[in-house]
Amino acid sequence: MIRFIALTPAGESLAKKLLSKGRLNHWADTVVDYKPKPFAEFVQTAFKNGDWLVFICATGIVMRTLAPVIQDKYQDPPVLVLDEEGKFVIPLLSGHEGGANEWGAQVAKSLGAQLVMTTAKPYLNPIYTLGMGCERNCPLEFLESLMLDALAQKGLIPNDIHSLNSIDIKADETNLIALAKKYRWNFNTYSAQQLAPMEPLLSTKSDYIFKTVGVYGVAESAALLSAQIETGTEPELILNKIKNAKATCAVARGFLLN
Description:
alpha/beta, Rossmann fold, Nucleotidyltransferase, domain 5, 6-stranded mixed beta sheet, 11 strands, 34% helix
């Protein structure tokens, strides 16, 4: 659930303006809460429930209200703060790990607003890459549904993705090729030897996968290596491997230092 929380008529109007923009329709269920009462209890409950929150009000109000329930950047949902004129978008909490930076960039682009980044790394030109592994002859619907789920979890759309990547034994995997063609992505595959240096960046390591293909994780390794190759910078996972009955998928990111 995404909640826009507004405290003024102008803020409510801005929230409704954002919701009216078709490009935001790929997000989860979205509501506008105007002057919810009791305010602190309502906001804290939504935060603890994992709702993504967009506040259109002063930053100080948000911090004082959320302070008692903030845990850490790996668990807390993303939080954005907008001014009621829609000139600035601030990823306030869980900007990096939680996805508020990417989300904030989308909101800012939609409004023609300025994204105010305060995290340490300059998010000037991110390159997003997908990594996927699958059973042999995996049906396209298993690949596509998993991919769309992965992107939705990070507030991304297919046009945000630079390439689809896997291990070289999947170079002839019919429906990985078909998925890349459908979304007009480059399809890249890499040898186990090429993927091996990504091992320290993996979220988990599977001994079974290592014994089978020679790397501890196909989806994460392939996404990370592609991001590194495309940008020449240290890559990072923004979505750890997720899976369904027949496939795995991960999302990585690098930054072009222009």
